[in-house]
Design goal:
Layout lengths: L5 H19 L11 H24 L3 H15 L11 H9 L2 H22 L2 E3 L5 E4 L3 H15 L21 H11 L4 H28 L2 H13 L8 H12 L15 H9 L31 H6 L3 H23 L2 H13 L5 H17 L3 H23 L17 E2 L10 E2 L1 H5 L6 E3 L5 H12 L2 H15 L2 H13 L3 H9 L1 H15 L2 E2 L8 H21 L4 H27 L13 E5 L1 H13 L5 E3 L7 H4 L4 E2 L4 H6 L5 H12 L9 H7 L2 E6 L11 H6 L4 E5 L2 E5 L6
Parallel strand pairs: 4-5, 8-9, 8-10
Antiparallel strand pairs: 1-2, 2-7, 3-5, 3-6, 10-12, 11-12
Helix pairs in contact: 1-2, 1-3, 2-3, 2-7, 2-8, 2-13, 5-8, 6-7, 7-8, 8-9, 8-13, 8-23, 9-23, 9-24, 10-11, 13-14, 13-15, 14-15, 14-16, 15-16, 15-22, 20-23, 22-23, 28-29
Length: 736
C-alpha cells in the first residue's frame, strides 16, 4: 500500500525537515540564533529533490521517489546525532532567549514567515469548480512552471526533455519544477505543489539573507535593513508617483480631469486624496507609457530596476533557491576565510556545486566570491577546498546549460543571439551588431561575441569609450535605477579610509573586502549580456545588490550619531525603499491600466472551465508522451494542465532561452496552413517529422500564426477534445 494524501504530505515535510537538520550537522558553522532552522529547510528540500530525481529515473516520479530520499538522508545524517547535546539546552536556552540577537532573529523568522505565507498562499489558488487563479504578476511565469511540473507528473518526462519544444534538451534548471511533481505524486494538487515549496524556500532564503548580513555586520538591525533592501530596494521611480497616480485616475475614473496632475489648482487636494487609492501597478518601470498612461515629460528616463519581491522572489521560482543557497554559501565562505577553516570551505564548495541545478547565476557569484576572498588572503588551501568540489560537481551541469544553442542573428521575432559585449548595459538604447556589421560601419552600441575577433572587440570598446555622452548616461542610469546606492558607496569608501573609532570598526569588519566580488559582478553585468534578452542581466545584478545591501545597511545603522544625522539616515533609507514598497502595495491590490477594462485586479485566471475540460479529455484520451501542435498560448491546457509536449510552446519563453527557432516556426506555420488547393503539400511530411499526433486550435494568437481550421475540418479527423475556443484533432492518419 502506497501512502498518499495528507498523511503522506505530512510525512514528507517532516522527513524533509529531519533530512535538512541532518545535512546541516555536517556544516561546521557557528550557527547564529535560529540560523540553522532555515538552513535545514532549504538543504532538506534541495537534498531530497536531488536524490529524488536520481531515484525517479529508475522508479518513476511516484510516491516512492518522493518519500524515500528524505527518509534515507535523515537516517544517514542523523545517525551521528548525540542525545547528550540535548542536555545542554536547558542551560543554554535561557541565556540565548535574553540576547538581542535572538529577539531579532525570532522577529525576522516570524515576520518573514507570515509575509511569505500570505504571498505564496495567494500565488496560485484553486477557484470554483477547480479553476486555477494566479496572482497577476505570476500568470506568464508560472504558466511555464505548471507546464514543466505537469510534464514530469502526467507526461512521464524522464529522462527530461523540454516539453515546450519537443525533442530538444532540457537546459532550464528544471529541478525547481521537478520537486512539485513529487508532491503531486503524494496527492497534493497543482496549486499546493507549487505554493508550498515556494513558501518554504522563499522564507528560508529571506531569513538566511538576514543571518548573512548579521554575521558580516554583527548588527541585527543592519541585517534587518539589508533584508528590506534586498526585498524592496528600488530606484527613484517614486518621484513620478503622483503624476502616475493622477494619470491612472484619468483612465479608471470617467470624468476625472487629468489637468489636476500637472499644476497646482483648487482640484489638486482632491487629486492627492484620490491618488492614494490609485497607485499605479508598475511604479518603478519606465518609460511611463508601459501602462498606456502616456505621461508627458516623464520625471526620469529608462528605469529598468523592478521591485525585487514582485519580479524575482514571487514569479521566478529558481530565484529563491539561488538566493538562499548563495546566502548560506556566503556565510560559510566568509567564516571559512576569516577563521581559515577548511571544513567550512569544503561545505561552501559543496553548496556551490548544487546551485547551478537550481540557479546558474548564483553559482557564478559564489565561485567568484570564493576566488576573491581566499585569494586576497593568500589562503590557497581554502581556495582549493572551496573551488574543487564546486568545479567537479557543479561545472558539468553549468556547462550543459550554456553549451546549447546561442540564438540566431535573425528570427521571426527578431535576433536572440548571445552573449554580447554591451558597455553600460541598459543605460542606452542598445542596437547590437555582428562583427561583420561593425566592420562595415553600421551604427551599433553592442557587439555579438559570436565570430568577433579581438580586433573587432577592441574597435567596439574604443568607439564606445571615446564618446563623452556614454559616461553621463551610465552614471545617470544607475542613479535613477538604484537611487543613492552609488553615493553611499563613495561615502563608505571614504569612511573606511578615515581615522576614528567607526572607521576602525568598519576596517575590522572588512566590509569592502566582503563587497568586492559584488562590484566585479556589477562590472561584468555592465560589460557582457549573458542572455538573449538583455534585461535578464538583472538576474546576475541581483547578487551584486545583495552584496551591496549588507555594507550599506551597516553604514545607515551604525554611522549616524545625533538626531539630525539619524533623521538624514532615515530619509536616505526611505528613498531606497519607497519605490519598492509602493509598487508592492499596488501589485497586491491589482490596479488597472489603460489596456485593462474593467480592471484586472490582483489575480488572473490561469485555467478556467474550458481549460479544465480540455485538460481532462486530453489526459483521458491521449498518451502521456504524445506530441501536440499548438499555437503557443502560455497557459495552454494541453501543456500547463495535462502535461503533454508541444512542438513549439510560447515563443517568448523559447526566444529568451536562446533557441534558434526560425526553421521550427516556419514548419509550424506550414502545418497550421493546411494543404494548398494545388501544388505540393508538406503537411503530412512535417506532421510525421515532428511526430505530431494531435493538432490544437485555441483562443488567442500568441505566436502570431495563421491557422486554417477549415482545411482540418474537411479532413474529417477524429475530435479528441473540444470546449469553448478549443478544438483538438487526432492527425496521425495524415502521416504520409
Amino acid at each position: 500500500m502506497v501512502l498518499t494524501g495528507w498523511p503522506a504530505l505530512t510525512a514528507y515535510w517532516i522527513l524533509v525537515a529531519a533530512a535538512g537538520w541532518g545535512l546541516t550537522s555536517f556544516i561546521p558553522l557557528r550557527w547564529l540564533p535560529l540560523e540553522r532552522l532555515p538552513a535545514a529547510a532549504l538543504t532538506g528540500v534541495v537534498g531530497s529533490t536531488l536524490l529524488g530525481f536520481i531515484l525517479a529515473l529508475a522508479l518513476g516520479p511516484g510516491a516512492a521517489a518522493a518519500l524515500l530520499p528524505p527518509a534515507l538522508i535523515a537516517a544517514v545524517t542523523l545517525a551521528r546525532f548525540r542525545p547528550t547535546r540535548l542536555r545542554l539546552w536547558p542551560d543554554q536556552l535561557p541565556q540565548r532567549l535574553g540576547t538581542a540577537g535572538f529577539r531579532w532573529s525570532l522577529a525576522i523568522v516570524v515576520v518573514t514567515g507570515l509575509g511569505s505565507w500570505f504571498l505564496f498562499a495567494h500565488a496560485l489558488q484553486v477557484g470554483p469548480h477547480g479553476t486555477l487563479v494566479a496572482a497577476s504578476n505570476l500568470w506568464g511565469d508560472w504558466s511555464v512552471h505548471t507546464s514543466y511540473v505537469q510534464s514530469f507528473h502526467l507526461g512521464r518526462n524522464l529522462p527530461p526533455r523540454d516539453s515546450v519544444e519537443a525533442g530538444t534538451a532540457f537546459r532550464y534548471p528544471f529541478l525547481v519544477d521537478f520537486q512539485p511533481a513529487l508532491l503531486e505524486a503524494l496527492g497534493q494538487n497543482l496549486a499546493g505543489a507549487l505554493d508550498m515549496p515556494s513558501f518554504v524556500v522563499g522564507w528560508a532564503a529571506m531569513v538566511l539573507v538576514f543571518q548573512l548580513a548579521t554575521r558580516v555586520t554583527r548588527r541585527p538591525a543592519a541585517g534587518a535593513l539589508a533584508l528590506a533592501l534586498v526585498l524592496f530596494g528600488g530606484g527613484l521611480g517614486f518621484v513620478g508617483a503622483y503624476g502616475d497616480g493622477c494619470q491612472q485616475l484619468a483612465v479608471s475614473q470617467p470624468g476625472f480631469d487629468s489637468a489636476a496632475c500637472t499644476h497646482l489648482s483648487t482640484a489638486t487636494p482632491s487629486a492627492v486624496v484620490a491618488f492614494v487609492g490609485h497607485i499605479p501597478t508598475e511604479l518603478t518601470h519606465l518609460p511611463r507609457f508601459y501602462d498606456g498612461q502616456q505621461q508627458v515629460d516623464p520625471p526620469l528616463p529608462d528605469l529598468q530596476w523592478y521591485e525585487p519581491l514582485l519580479v524575482y522572489w514571487l514569479p521566478q521560482r529558481d530565484f529563491a533557491f539561488g538566493m538562499g543557497l548563495v546566502a548560506l554559501g556566503l556565510s560559510c565562505l566568509w567564516e571559512a576565510v576569516r577563521r581559515r577553516r577548511s571544513g567550512l570551505a569544503i561545505a561552501a564548495g559543496t553548496l556551490t556545486a548544487a546551485v547551478p541545478l537550481f540557479n546558474p547565476f548564483g553559482y557564478l557569484f559564489l565561485g567568484l566570491s570564493a576566488l576573491w576572498w581566499s585569494g586576497r588572503r593568500g589562503w590557497w588551501r581554502g581556495t582549493a577546498s572551496a573551488i574543487l568540489p564546486a568545479t567537479l560537481l557543479g561545472l558539468p551541469q553549468l556547462y550543459f546549460e550554456v553549451a546549447g544553442p546561442h540564438g540566431s542573428p535573425t528570427g521571426p521575432l527578431g535576433p536572440n543571439l548571445f552573449p554580447a559585449l554591451d558597455l553600460g548595459w541598459l543605460s542606452h538604447a542598445a542596437s547590437a551588431c555582428t562583427a561583420t556589421q561593425l566592420q562595415s560601419g553600421d551604427a551599433c552600441s553592442a557587439l555579438y561575441l559570436a565570430g568577433a575577433s579581438p580586433v573587432a572587440v577592441g574597435r567596439y570598446l574604443l568607439q564606445t569609450l571615446s564618446q563623452p555622452a556614454f559616461y553621463g548616461a551610465f552614471l545617470g542610469f544607475w542613479l535613477s535605477n538604484t537611487g543613492i546606492v552609488l553615493v553611499l558607496t563613495v561615502g563608505l569608501v571614504v569612511l573606511v579610509a578615515a581615522r576614528g573609532r567607526t572607521p576602525a570598526r568598519s576596517r575590522r569588519l572588512q566590509l569592502l573586502r566582503f563587497w568586492a566580488p559584488g562590484w566585479v559582478t556589477f562590472l561584468l553585468a555592465n560589460l557582457v549580456i549573458t542572455q538573449p534578452w538583455n534585461w535578464d542581466n538583472t538576474k546576475l545584478l541581483s547578487y551584486w545588490y545583495l552584496a551591496a545591501a549588507i555594507p550599506l545597511a551597516w553604514l545607515l545603522t551604525q554611522v549616524p550619531r545625533g538626531t539630525w544625522l539619524r533623521v538624514l539616515a532615515a530619509l536616505a533609507t526611505l528613498t531606497l525603499l519607497a519605490s519598492g514598497i509602493l509598487a508592492e502595495l499596488a501589485g497586491m491590490e491589482g490596479r488597472s491600466n489603460a489596456f485593462q477594462t474593467p480592471p484586472s485586479g490582483a489575480t488572473s485566471t490561469l485555467a478556467g472551465p474550458a481549460e479544465l475540460t480540455v485538460a481532462r479529455e486530453v489526459e483521458r484520451r491521449t498518451s502521456p508522451r504524445a506530441i501536440f501542435l499548438t499555437e503557443g498560448q502560455p497557459n495552454d491546457p494541453v501543456t500547463s494542465l495535462a502535461g503533454r509536449t508541444a512542438v513549439l510552446g510560447y515563443y517568448g519563453w523559447l526566444w529568451s532561452y536562446g533557441q534558434p527557432l526560425a526553421a521550427r516556426y516556419r514548419a509550424v506555420q506550414l502545418m497550421y496552413a493546411g494543404c494548398p488547393a494545388s501544388g505540393r503539400c508538406q503537411v503530412g511530411y512535417l506532421l510525421a517529422r515532428y511526430r505530431v499526433a494531435y493538432v490544437e486550435f485555441e483562443p488567442g494568437d500568441y505566436n502570431q500564426i495563421s491557422v486554417n481550421l477549415a482545411w482540418y475540418r474537411s479532413r474529417h479527423l477524429p475530435v479528441v477534445a473540444s470546449a469553448p475556443g478549443y478544438l483538438i484533432f487526432d492527425v496521425r492518419s495524415l502521416w504520409r
